[in-house]
Amino acid sequence: MIPILVFFVAHWVLSIFAQTFFLHRYGAHRMFTMSRGWERFFYIFSVVAQGPSFLVPRAYAFLHREHHAFADSERDPHSPLYHSNVAGMMWNTKAKYDAYAYRRSEPETRFLGGVPEWRTIDELSQRWVVRIGLGALYAVFYLAFAPSLWWFLLLPVHWLMGPIHGAIVNWCGHKYGYRNFDTRDVSKNTLPIDFITMGELFQNNHHQHGADPNFAARWFEIDPCFQVMRVLDAVGVIDLDGVPAARLPAEA
Ligand SMILES: [Zn+2]
Ligand SMILES: [Zn+2]
Fold first, then answer.
1. pLDDT tens for each residue of 112-123
2. Predicted pLDDT of residue 243
């Protein structure tokens, strides 16, 4: 039982870190800079961490920039205001995500630019043989260590980890919690210490200060990802004071 629990928690933490640190704060917002080498490292890190549910960074960035520009209006790709349940919201999000991820359409030009791109990795990660292979690796681990078949019910969570984190953030962060700022949207801060999604659930703070790498705003709020980023900045992996290559276009 212990290896399974450690594996589940480790996968959860690494996957949400990849999403909030690399896809969101770096890819979509350019809140900090890093060298080309480290960018490639975190690109691969995100593939390993998210596995079969790896989200293509450029598609994530375009969708997320639209979310900020149209937050909680009809053009928001994932506002809970327009869906009666979380599955419907995510289905709508998936259609828009796929269009960008498979390069079937492009966003408005103001949302383009300044996104990490590695086309070979994107295309490899989208092949079903790769996705199924990575998913099977999780099943092998469960076959080796799960004490009973009930534990296999956790496997779909591993397979869909990226979208599950997105669903939690997009649904709860615009529906449940408290507000520090009177933003145009209905964003909320769901938890004062966001240990579930490493800071992503400070949606109200983040919509107010879209370029601030620290999602916590008040004395009692703690953003775990930002604490990791301070360490990465101190050891020279990232530069929190670097001149951003591009700001969030919607806010430029
Ligand atoms: Zn954002
Ligand atoms: Zn939001």
1. 988 999 999 999
2. 55
Could you tell me the distance, in angstroms and rounded to a whole number, from the CA of residue 22 to the centre of ligand 1?
12
CA distance 175 to 201: 11
Residue 103 lies in a domain: yes
Find the 168 Cα to ligand 2 centroid distance in Å: 11
What dihedral angle (degrees, nearest 10) is formed by the CA atoms of 5, 7, 10, 13? Answer: -70
Residue 111 Cα to ligand 1 middle (Å): 13
How far is residue 222's CA from residue 204's CA, in Å, rounded to a whole number? 14
| Beta pairing partners, 189 | 178, 202
Please answer whether residues 2 and 144 qualify as being in contact, where contact means their C-beta atoms are separated by less than 8 angstroms. no
193 near 207, Cβ under 8 Å?
no
Q: Is residue 48 part of a domain?
A: yes
pLDDT tens, position by position, 184-240: 999 999 999 999 999 999 999 999 999 999 999 999 999 999 999 999 999 999 999
Share of the chain above pLDDT 90, in %: 88
Q: Is 18 part of any domain?
A: yes
User: CA 151, CA 143: separation in Å to the nearest integer?
Assistant: 10
Q: Establish if 171 belongs to a structural domain.
A: no
Number of domains in the chain: 1
Residue 195, judged by CB atoms within 10 A of its CB (0-12, 13-18, 19+), counts as exposed
CA 160 to ligand 2 centroid distance, Å: 20
Q: Quickly tell me which residue has 């301070």 as its tokens.
A: 230
- Domain residues for the domain of 151 are 2-161+236-251
Are 30 and 245 a contacting pair, CB within 8 Å? yes
Residue 200 structure tokens: 């992503």
Query: Which residues of the chain, if any, have pLDDT below 50?
Result: 245-252
